[in-house]
Write the structure tokens for this entry.
Amino acid sequence: MMKIGIDVGGTYTDAVLLDGSRLVEWAKTPTQPDNLLASLTGALDQILQVKGAGGITRVTISTTIITNLVVEEKYEPVALILIPGPGYNPKAWRLAPETRIIKGAVDFRGKIIQEIIQDEVLTVIKDLADKGFSKLAVVGKFSIRNPILEERVREIILGRYPDWEVELGHTTAGHLNFPRRAATTVLTAATKAKYARFVRQVEDAVRERKISAPIYVLKADGGTVPLGKSVHHPVDTIFSGPAASVLGALAMTGEQETGVVVDMGGTTTDLALILAGQPLVASQGAPIGHYKTQVRAFAVTSVALGGDSGLRVEDGQLKLDSRRYGPAACLGGPGPTPTDAFRVLALTDIGDLSLARGSMAELGAGLGLTPEEAAEEVAQLVTSRMVEVIEEMFRVWQEEPAYRLWEILHKAVERPRNIIGVGGAAVIVDRVAKAMGCTGFLPLHGRVANAVGAALAQPSVVVTLRADSQRGFYNIEEEGIQLPLPEGRDFKLADGVKLAEEWLKKRGQALGVEVALEEREVVRQEVFNLVRGHGTVGRIIDIIIQTPWKIEGLLEQQTMAAGRGGENHE
């Protein structure tokens, strides 16, 4: 079974060709930030030189496109229309350049308690049109319990401006948390068009190379979805790169202990926690920039510390900048970087040694040190900064409900035992591990771990069902729909699980994913009895059910294939 995995990173694009669990070929090429498609196809063409397109059964990519669009604000402005109802004041939110609040309300059980006013909506959208907006996010509180008000607002908008792009909160983010749902909807409206264009280009490029296999994209939670289907929820692909590094590390180590995956790139370092062999999942959703989203994601953190971070001397002190000014000096860049220090210390063989020594000599002149001594100072500074970041991130991760639950179940407080270095982290992981009293681990194929993780990732599907037997309705939050209960008031928890399983299969079919119910996991099941007087008049049932998180086996640890462009640098 031949599989291709491609990771489009911020500095390098990696690609691998796997035959089952055996690495056949790999490639690493510089990423062109303004042309991610060319970066992807360049790496793809290199690995296809070995066996061609015949026999490829799956292509999976992880990409930075959504992260880049959001962080760099490379999208058209979006206006936000909120329907908060009484008792909630979202005026302080800063999610969009223009936010409008209109009348209308749905209560927590999905009952409409205040209708929208058509004339008010028309006045609002005319004002937005005058200001040049044509992309809108419409989000109502409790809209996942009853989306009718959002849908009516969209009808009014499209009736007046049929060419506008309108995203609704209940179809974009299917869980309670009004602010996070609003943020996710804004980002979806902002990025959807550009992401859809990228998807079409990728599909065309793959087909032009005579590959007929299905194409998937890796989501932030480590699961995959068919690339064409991902255009409906593009924001789900933020942090797919860090998710790929976690999967790759697990595929290469098989460790069941607690550790931190460190993926050091040219611009940033991605950190992720593996808790007793399982990635920790962020309970609320992934943050990106100043946005807090509802996107289900591994608990990953990106910090502005990379191999190409700038170095300078200020008041006789060595300073490490959070910015990347260009490639390392040893690669023709403008100034000294950690990569140059690592080259001088023989921790990597990337680039021109004489250029690296020259940059360290320049740095050392301001410190009164030789090039070698300056390089050692840089390595120590990077190590101490990395340790600080990992310790702080672990303190943050300990606040995650999933982590606290693990501690309760295992009656133990966990600390990182392994520091797993992938990508460019190979040059520093031993120093970091020693400073933390941990074991440093470098997977054999760690330089292309992200692409391996993408290739071995499996599809995932989740369903959140909430049933109200007194009212006789149930909601599927991911679909943003409300339907009548088949059993009415006699609806019980077992009925809810069965109904959720039906929707799990249905959602899987819509996403092109085969769901095996015998493997499904019930993440949450709760029943609240509704009491009136001296008797129970109904139940509220909450169920979250999903396909299990998994990778397609461990990578066979054979000798590294003879890939191209293979310097151990990200």
Observations:
- The first strand starts at residue 2 and ends at 8.
- Residues 558-570 have pLDDT under 50 and may be disordered.
- Residues 58 and 66 are 22 Å apart (CA to CA).
